[in-house]
Design a protein that fits this description.
There is one protein chain. By secondary structure, the chain is of the alpha/beta class. The chain has helices at residues 11-20, 37-47, 63-70, 88-97, 110-155, 157-162, 164-171, 198-216, 249-267, 282-295, 310-315, 328-340, 343-359, 366-386, 397-401, 411-430, 436-453, 461-467, 472-483, 487-503, 510-516, 522-533, 537-543, and strands spanning 2-7, 28-34, 51-55, 78-83, 102-105, 179-189, 224-230, 233-240, 269-275, 307-309. The protein has a five-stranded parallel β-sheet, with helices on both faces. Helix 2 runs parallel beside helix 3, helix 8 (198-216) packs antiparallel against helix 9 and helix 12 crosses helix 16. The radius of gyration is 34 Å and the shape is elongated. The two termini are 54 Å apart. Residues 445-543 form the HTH araC/xylS-type domain.
């Protein structure tokens, strides 16, 4: 609803304007009046109207002088001049000079005057949207710079500390009245190919962090939450007024457990949050953020939980004796399994390693079980080199960097994935006698089978690369070089072939088939089907005698 100010020294004219239009229908809910420019100036600053209709010549201050003084202070207000024929040229000049949107010519002609008022109201809406967009852009710019700062905190903490002053200026807070609380959130799809949209998770993450702040610290809300997204994680820093006014942590964590479990069930996603220790000392923050990141690995032995405290994750680790090693006998057994390409024995062996690691949790420090995973991969690399199986630039860099540990919610799933990769290595070695072309056919057959298994989902190249352990860039080049098509064309052809099979079934509607093949838009499905099959789905179905 809008507010109108009428500035006119003739009472009859003011009254006439108030009753000339059906202002309620125009969504003008409040009308105020002033009898000269000086009073109008005061009234406008007090009421802040959306629309001002003003006469030009009035005692004490004319309308144009009033407008000139109000424009800087009321940038979203739309000004309309009320003028007679003898001042018409003057009014037009005022509009050309800016600051005045339109004029109403006395005596008023209803249709023209109504069109002018409607135009003014549209201008009000446009200005509001423009200002909101501008505010959003400024906000996004701040968040973007804040995101860069969090990234710097992870990668070059000393440089991040040196930029503290810029951070304060950006978010307008004083250095002696705030603290920092680090958070890390990870999300993993429960189904193979059903990831939560990154934009959605980023928006929800800020809400979860703010809810956690309110639960953990009495009468405290985050002054600002800045986040940085990397792969399937969001690193967050909440800037607080007072980071030490703690309440009952147990109740707060229970509340967040319920929230994350519900959000995960609704989105078919496993969501985990690690809460770091708050600090008012910026040089500590980089270390605390990394510590918070590691706390997410507690999910491997604290099954069923979604929220973890970083302090617990750090203090629970005991002596160096709480460790597991890959001894020489294990290395020989694993190497023999690789040489014989015995997938079943490889998986049995990896299952034993999984149980051995879990038996040492939580006393074993993360660095120790990461070292164990590195030892496993260290056995496989010489095997691959010996059998001329390319490793670097072909296989995912997640294998060498151990980044794959962030992609699983349980140790069981992690070791199963490693077992599949090792079985693949063994198969490639065993099939070394096959030609390159035959090996490529096997790769594409495996990928096609995976896509068909998840045909209703949006299976991205990254998902396929992760599933089959490849570097996505290598896989993309392989499609182009060997099949002379990109990955999306490969997926589209599989989907349309599947659609053709389903169209032979008269019990299925075409709209249902569209969804079953992974298309969210029926129009897009029909268009794509036509490109591949050179006919519509309905025409294809008629070929088989179904109408």
């Amino acid at each position: 609803m809008y507010k109108l100010l009428i500035v006119e020294d003739e009472p009859l004219i003011r009254t006439g304007i108030k009753h000339y239009f059906n202002w309620q229908d125009l969504e003008v809910s409040h009308i105020v009046e002033a009898d000269n420019g000086k009073t109008g100036l005061t009234m406008a600053l007090q009421e802040k109207p959306h629309l001002i209709i003003t006469d030009i010549r009035m005692p004490e201050m004319d309308g144009l002088e009033m407008i000139e003084q109000l424009r800087p202070q009321l940038p979203d207000t739309v000004f309309v001049i009320l003028t007679g024929f003898n001042e018409f040229a003057y009014a037009q000049q005022a509009i050309r000079l800016g600051g005045v949107h339109a004029f109403l010519l006395k005596p008023l002609e209803y249709e023209k005057s109504l069109a002018t008022i409607q135009s003014c109201l549209q201008e009000i809406v446009a200005r509001q949207k423009k200002r909101e967009t501008h505010s959003e852009l400024i906000h996004e710019s701040k968040l973007s710079k804040g995101s860069e700062w969090v990234q710097l905190l992870l990668e070059e903490p000393d440089l991040a500390v040196a930029q503290e002053g810029k951070l304060q200026q950006l978010f307008e807070f004083q250095s002696d009245h705030y603290g920092y609380a680090p958070f890390v959130i990870s999300w993993l799809p429960m189904k193979t190919a059903a990831p939560l949209a990154k934009n959605s998770i980023k928006q929800m993450a800020a809400t979860w962090i703010d809810d956690t702040i309110s639960s953990l610290y009495s009468t405290e809300t985050a002054r600002q939450i800045i986040t940085y997204m990397y792969r399937s994680k969001i690193y967050g820093i909440a800037i607080l007024n007072n980071p030490y006014a703690e309440v009952d942590q147990r109740l707060a964590i229970q509340q967040q457990e319920r929230l994350l479990k519900q959000a995960g069930d609704e989105s078919q996603t496993s969501i985990f949050m690690a809460i770091g220790e708050p600090t008012d000392k910026l040089p500590e923050l980089g270390h605390l953020l990394h510590q918070t990141d590691k706390a997410l690995w507690q999910r491997y032995y604290e099954t069923g939980r979604h929220v973890f405290l970083a302090a617990v994750g750090e203090t629970a680790h005991a002596s160096k004796s709480s460790a597991i090693h890959l001894d020489d006998q294990d290395k020989k057994q694993l190497y023999a399994c690789l040489e014989s390409a015995n997938a079943e024995e490889i998986k049995k062996l990896l299952h034993r390693f999984e149980k051995d690691n879990l038996a040492h949790m939580p006393q074993m420090a993360p660095a120790r079980w990461l070292a164990f995973l590195q030892e496993l991969i260290g056995v496989c690399i010489p095997f691959a080199n010996k059998n001329s199986i390319p490793f670097e630039s072909v296989y995912s860099d997640k294998l060498l960097s151990l980044a794959f540990v962030d992609d699983f919610s349980t140790f069981e799933a992690l070791f199963e994935w490693l077992g599949d990769w090792m079985a693949q290595l063994g198969t490639l070695s065993r099939d070394g006698s096959l030609s390159d072309q035959q090996q490529d056919v096997l790769i594409f057959e495996h990928i096609a089978s995976f896509i068909r298994q998840n045909i209703a989902e949006d299976v991205t190249l990254q998902m396929v690369a992760d599933r089959f352990f490849y570097n996505p860039s290598y896989l993309s080049r392989l499609f182009k070089r060997k099949l002379d098509k990109n990955y999306m064309r490969f997926v589209t052809e599989i989907r349309i072939t599947y659609a053709q099979e389903l169209l032979k079934r008269p019990d299925l509607l075409v709209t249902d088939i569209c969804t079953m093949c992974g298309y969210k838009s029926y129009k897009h499905f029909v268009k794509t089907f036509g490109i591949i099959a050179q006919m519509t789905p309905t025409e294809y179905r008629k070929k088989w005698g179904w109408s």
